[in-house]
Design a protein that fits this description.
Strands 5-4-3-6-7 form a 5-stranded mixed β-sheet. Strand 3 and strand 4 form a beta hairpin. Helix content is about 45%, strand content about 20%. It is α/β, with parallel strands linked by helices. The protein is built from 15 helices and 7 strands. The longest helix is centred in the N-terminal third of the chain and has 22 residues.
């Protein structure tokens, strides 16, 4: 059932705006909207108290406990309208729990989201404080801002430590470089593990921030995955991450390590002039599009004969990594495409880039 729409009579609007002459009369510090919000909130709280007690003000007591009203307490709400002082009704037994403005709440719904949005854009606590005061006339303490952002950090930590499925047919390991604020702004590598579940769904298993990769770092990552419940990974598709094959084979010895074909092609094209890129890319595709390993080896030999004179590092790199490039030939075409394309990774990377392009988020 859709929520009921309340029509405001034109006569009421006309009477409210009878003294309106300039925008400040409506949206200013003491404007109509702020006054109206205060009156509506307080009237709604009075209605909640009536519902709680079972009788209206000045009516006979209608509850068996003999509970009645007992004055009001004052509270200042912070929100996009600035600071709004309101009075909240109390009852003698202290059992009234307002729904509109819960006990201990001092911020209007959505205000925390505003703080987090500014924080995600890379603003410091002091900058957020100044922005909120300038935009909304609300003075927010640094400790309040820190408590809001720290709560999200704890949620992220809980997400990073959550239990995982016992089996993932495919896990992609990738890296994206982002600017983060850690005192000064620095470029750091964010490593992602993205799993394909037994039901075919994509799941981000975790993110790790590191300055340098290596066997020790990757051993910590894969050990963490095992400790969170992963028992087996069929195929680990990686972008030539240094030390990763040795680390995953130490923790999951049955896992097949597959170098990402798309990344391999991209790295190869870095050696090629712009006018030759399309042709070289097409010849590389003839290698990984082959039906068998034997046909792929023949295609690589033909590639060498055609391009080694101009771009020898390409075939050298493919030869050097050949044993890590060919495992996907053991699978049917439908599975191969899932392995060597990067669609599962790119969508996550795109989301991360959107989050970081307009600011420098904090490192944690």
């Amino acid at each position: 059932m859709s929520p009921r729409t309340h029509e405001v009579p034109d006569e009421l609007l006309s009477s409210l705006l009878v003294n309106y002459t300039k925008p400040e009369d409506l949206i200013g510090e003491n404007g109509l909207l702020k006054q109206l919000t205060k009156r509506l909130v307080e009237r709604a709280l009075d209605a909640e108290m009536t519902e709680h007690l079972g009788h209206d003000k000045h009516e006979p007591v209608a509850n068996a406990a003999g509970n009645t009203r007992n004055g009001r307490s004052r509270k200042t709400l912070k929100g996009e309208f600035g600071e709004l002082p309101i009075e909240i009704p109390r009852d003698r037994h202290g059992s009234f729990a307002p729904q509109l403005i819960p006990k201990h709440q001092t911020r209007w719904a959505g205000f925390d989201d505003k703080i987090l949005s500014l924080y995600a854009r890379g603003m410091t606590v002091r900058e957020i404080q100044s922005h909120l005061e300038e935009m909304y006339g609300t003075e927010v303490s640094p400790s309040l801002i820190s408590s809001v952002t720290d709560a999200v950090v704890e949620e992220v930590k809980a997400w990073q430590a959550r239990p995982l499925d016992p089996v993932y047919p495919i896990v992609y390991l990738d890296c994206i470089h982002v600017k983060v604020r850690e005192g000064a702004v620095r470029v750091k590598a964010v490593y992602l593990a993205i799993g394909i579940t037994m039901g075919g769904e994509k799941e981000v298993l975790g993110l790790w921030l590191a300055q340098a990769e290596g066997a020790k770092f990757w051993l910590q990552v894969v050990t963490e995955l095992r400790n969170r419940g992963v028992q087996d990974i069929f195929i680990a598709c990686v972008d030539g991450l240094k030390g990763f094959p040795e680390a995953i084979e130490a923790v999951f010895p049955q896992t097949t390590v597959q170098l990402c074909i798309v990344h391999m092609v991209r790295h190869s094209l870095n050696y090629v002039s712009w006018k030759r890129r399309a042709e070289v890319a097409a010849d590389l595709k003839r290698i990984y599009a082959c039906a068998t390993v034997e046909e792929a080896e023949q295609a690589l030999t033909e590639f060498e004969a055609k391009w080694d004179a101009q771009y020898p590092p390409i075939s050298q790199s493919w030869r050097r990594n050949w044993s890590r490039l060919i495992p996907f030939f053991d699978y049917p075409p439908e599975i191969r495409k899932v392995i060597y394309t990067t669609n599962a990774i790119e969508s996550v990377n795109m989301s991360l880039r959107k989050l970081t392009k307009n600011g420098n988020p904090p490192a944690h």
